[in-house]
């Protein structure tokens, strides 16, 4: 690729970085991507999942169907970097590299425009709302997506801490199952001098939080890995004459598989039920931001490995899943495929850190990885 062409995709990535948008609100991001990729002549370009885009290449209705997905949303993090392309939106920035993932997919679109498919179809999905776990579901539920039924689905994530350009993958679960549990505790307020006339949920909340530690298995190498992280609590009001009557506990749960997540959730609900007996406190629970484990199909993993080695890229077979969640896992619940990582550099800031920035040198090699995977499916 010429340096002139390379610069166009780097500048596109940095434009997305300058104008980040939160999950489900990526209207300007959608417009910018649509304007940029239209020049690469897709067979069709449609809006999906409200703020996402779906490009089609190839029109053969009898051959294989491959879906390549990139995420496009940003995070509610104030950027501290002071480079020229820094975020211009207060309190919002691309601190997970989704701007880079979108640029990779745009570069892949350019490759597909230059090298038309002879068999089957390829769909490039610019997916919104990954960070909240809502985007994959919005796309899968969109009638515009219903008829596609891909034979293979692929996605990547950049990985700080690994050598630049190194491909990282594993069969089975690649990212953890993650979800958040919200528990509300409703008692009865009273005068703080007469707490016996009310029902203060404070001690029940404290007992519950302490009990969660007994269900934690923090070793990510273990099949029984279970991480329970307290995220937020609230109790009563700053009114020192009033004994609290309401509180909340928010937890984020992580396990290796979605089946283990179901078991852990049942254990937590059982603990709540036992602890609350006789307290008079009304308990309500809700689950939010659900991420299924990204489950890599064995054949798709081998295709990732084969593609990386054919291109001369370093390859690492990871032994345990990453502890973070990724809503691409919902796609792998429905279709065979794989998610892989591409190293962003060993000494770069971590994902979701306020000084993180995507490594632009990954755009071309990552696009070529996807192109090689497509060639494997459609030869």
From TrEMBL:
<feature type="binding site">
    <location>
        <position position="131"/>
    </location>
    <ligand>
        <name>Mn(2+)</name>
    </ligand>
</feature>
<dbReference type="InterPro" id="IPR036264">
    <property type="entry name" value="Bact_exopeptidase_dim_dom"/>
</dbReference>
<keyword id="KW-0378">Hydrolase</keyword>
<dbReference type="GO" id="GO:0046872">
    <property type="term" value="F:metal ion binding"/>
</dbReference>
<feature type="binding site">
    <location>
        <position position="157"/>
    </location>
    <ligand>
        <name>Mn(2+)</name>
    </ligand>
</feature>
<dbReference type="GO" id="GO:0016787">
    <property type="term" value="F:hydrolase activity"/>
</dbReference>
<feature type="domain" description="Peptidase M20 dimerisation">
    <location>
        <begin position="181"/>
        <end position="272"/>
    </location>
</feature>
<dbReference type="Pfam" id="PF07687">
    <property type="entry name" value="M20_dimer"/>
</dbReference>
<feature type="binding site">
    <location>
        <position position="96"/>
    </location>
    <ligand>
        <name>Mn(2+)</name>
    </ligand>
</feature>
<keyword id="KW-0479">Metal-binding</keyword>
<dbReference type="InterPro" id="IPR011650">
    <property type="entry name" value="Peptidase_M20_dimer"/>
</dbReference>
<feature type="binding site">
    <location>
        <position position="352"/>
    </location>
    <ligand>
        <name>Mn(2+)</name>
    </ligand>
</feature>
<dbReference type="Pfam" id="PF01546">
    <property type="entry name" value="Peptidase_M20"/>
</dbReference>
<feature type="binding site">
    <location>
        <position position="98"/>
    </location>
    <ligand>
        <name>Mn(2+)</name>
    </ligand>
</feature>
<keyword id="KW-0464">Manganese</keyword>
<dbReference type="InterPro" id="IPR002933">
    <property type="entry name" value="Peptidase_M20"/>
</dbReference>
<dbReference type="InterPro" id="IPR017439">
    <property type="entry name" value="Amidohydrolase"/>
</dbReference>
<protein>
    <submittedName>
        <fullName>Amidohydrolase</fullName>
    </submittedName>
</protein>
């Amino acid at each position: 690729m010429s340096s002139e062409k390379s610069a166009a995709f780097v500048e596109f990535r940095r434009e997305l970085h300058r104008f980040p948008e939160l999950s489900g609100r990526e209207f300007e991001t959608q417009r910018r991507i649509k304007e940029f990729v239209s020049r690469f002549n897709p067979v069709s370009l449609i809006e999906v999942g409200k703020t996402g885009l779906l490009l089609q290449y190839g029109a053969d209705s009898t051959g294989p169907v491959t879906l390549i997905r990139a995420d496009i949303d940003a995070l509610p993090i104030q950027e501290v970097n002071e480079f020229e392309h820094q975020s211009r939106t207060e309190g919002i920035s691309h601190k997970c590299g989704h701007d880079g993932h979108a640029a990779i997919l745009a570069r892949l679109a350019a490759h597909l425009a230059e090298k038309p498919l002879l068999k089957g179809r390829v769909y490039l999905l610019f997916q919104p709302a990954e960070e909240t776990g809502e985007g994959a579901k919005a796309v899968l539920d969109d009638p515009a997506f219903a008829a596609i039924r891909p034979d293979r689905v692929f996605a990547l994530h950049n990985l700080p801490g690994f050598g630049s350009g190194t491909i990282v993958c594993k069969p089975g679960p690649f990212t953890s199952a993650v979800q958040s549990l919200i528990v509300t505790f409703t008692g009865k307020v009273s005068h703080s001098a007469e707490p016996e006339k009310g029902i203060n949920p404070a001690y029940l909340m404290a007992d519950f939080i302490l009990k969660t530690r007994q269900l934690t298995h923090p070793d990510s190498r273990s099949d029984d890995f279970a991480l329970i992280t307290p995220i937020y609590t609230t109790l009563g009001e700053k009114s020192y004459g009033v004994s609290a009557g309401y509180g909340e506990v928010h937890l984020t749960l992580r396990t290796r598989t979605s089946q283990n997540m179901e078991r852990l959730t049942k254990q937590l609900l059982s603990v709540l039920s036992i602890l609350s007996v006789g307290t008079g406190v009304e308990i309500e629970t809700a689950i939010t931001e659900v991420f299924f484990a990204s489950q890599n199909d064995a054949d798709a993993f081998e295709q990732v490995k084969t593609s990386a080695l054919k291109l001369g890229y370093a390859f690492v077979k990871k032994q345990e899943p990453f502890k973070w969640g990724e809503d691409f896992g919902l796609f792998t619940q429905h279709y065979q495929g794989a998610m892989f990582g591409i190293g962003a550099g060993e000494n770069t800031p971590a994902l979701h850190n306020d000084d993180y920035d995507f490594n632009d040198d990954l755009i071309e090699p990552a696009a070529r990885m996807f192109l090689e995977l497509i060639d494997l499916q459609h030869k």
